[in-house]
Amino acid sequence: MESYDFVVIGSGIAGLTFALKAAAHGRVAVITKRAPADSNTAWAQGGVACVTSTEDSFELHVRDTLVAGAGLCDEGAVRTIVSEGPARIQELLALGVQFDEREVPGGDGHTELDLGREGGHSKRRILHAHDTTGREIEMSLLRAIAATPDIVLLDNHMAVDLITAAKLGFATENRVIGVYVLNEETGEVVTIESPRVVLATGGCGKVYLYTTNPNVATGDGVAMAWRAGAVIANMEFIQFHPTCLFHPEARSFLITEALRGEGGVLRDARGRSFMEKYHPLASLAPRDIVARAIDAEMKRTGEKCVYLDVTDKPADFLKARFPNIYENCLRYGIDLTRQPIPVVPAAHYQCGGVRTDIDGATHLRGLYAVGEVASTGLHGANRLASNSLLEGLVLAHRACGRALRDEPLKANHVDARSRYQLPEWQSGQVQDVDELVVIYHNWDEIRRLMWDYVGIVRTDKRLQRAAARLRNLQAEIQEFYWNFKVTTDLLELRNLATVAALIVDSALSRRESRGLHYTLDYPETDDRFPPRPTELRRF
Ligand code: SIN
Questions:
Q1: Which of 20, 138, 166, 200 is the most exposed place for a label (fewest CB within 10 A)?
Q2: For 483-498, how does the pLDDT look when each residue is reduced to its tens digit (9 = 90+)?
Q3: Residue 539, class by beta-carbon neighbours within 10 Å (0-12 exposed, 13-18 middle, 19+ buried)?
């Protein structure tokens, strides 16, 4: 058994920020299932929404966030996250993160942050590093982690399950006391004890057939928290990004909303701009509206995609501001300076997750959740673009303070280790998985059924079909889990099935359309009562 003062599961912006802060107080293990930079953060193009300009205000950012959230945001959480943002941005700048700057007009060569604009924002407030902001932040954080001796980064390690006092039959309050972790190279499961376990595992885009997310986004944190007994909230609110590149060889390549912020226009196959029919902000309307409009246009015209047109912008500007997208499109034979980009909506962001307070504390003592895996109340029924990196930074900072207050370090250092002797992982008589085809088949089936039955437009009948099919799949997968040696593929499949079922159950329980949840059976928003988050409890 290994012991750490803090265990962080996940290596995106929230997990790495937490680890850096926690390392000032104790030993930290960061567990990440592939390479350290394999995270949603590293793929983020748009940037970080934060009030840094004198033309902007916290009040406006709060208002934009609440409007997008369609009545379900926790206003206190929104205010805290928005107002603590600038201090966290200063910390990123101190770490060496290079956001784009521009010359102040008439300012004698002085520069200021170059702020981008995205859908739903009333002001320019997106800090960005060209169109690879996430990569810039991720690499700066990883450099800082590598220079911090008290952090052990365990890559190619996947968390199997949280260890709780209840699961081990301890006669104490139920709490998290560690985690079982699969070392993917040796195939062994190691036991890690810790009184402070932080989920920073990101989202679950891979539960859908089409997604802008990397392969690691399999909902591991939500699934583990659910099995451990934490409360899961608002999982029906899956954000579909309106513009993912449509090309048979290009999977999961996002076309940032910042292109529309710079004047990009959505057109149908005949070149007609169509968003004016759906919203006064046209192509810059909130994401849920744009994604639904594209879905409706595709269904109406029978076309496989729509087009994002930026050809009226100067080519030099486009190449300098969006070099990554320009190069990537060119690789698929699309010169965005001369021709419209074919795009389709794709699953992008999990707005719900493990219920936490504004300090990242979950309902289970010893367990914290930060970043996309958490449901803090910031996003409500629909996330405002680029609010997520901001939330990850603020929550990581607050959760570190909270974990130290909940479990004061010195006392626990002695206490926890003598209190909990954790048993080793029992693998019994299990064999190697005999038929990998079962895993791949089930994986595909879940992603396709979620896309077809639990997508942008839902109905009760489709949701019920999905629920019935998922129950069978979960039983089959559970049998596999008990009878065969655990592998990353099997663990991810088990987590995907759990998260898919949580999305369906949450969607079935909301009998109205609100934000990202749109159902033909209840097409109106029910404003008779104050809106409530959907909360699912296992115990
Ligand atoms: C984008 O660049 O369009 C994505 C930004 C976000 O999802 O916050």
A1: 166
A2: 889 999 999 999 999 9
A3: exposed
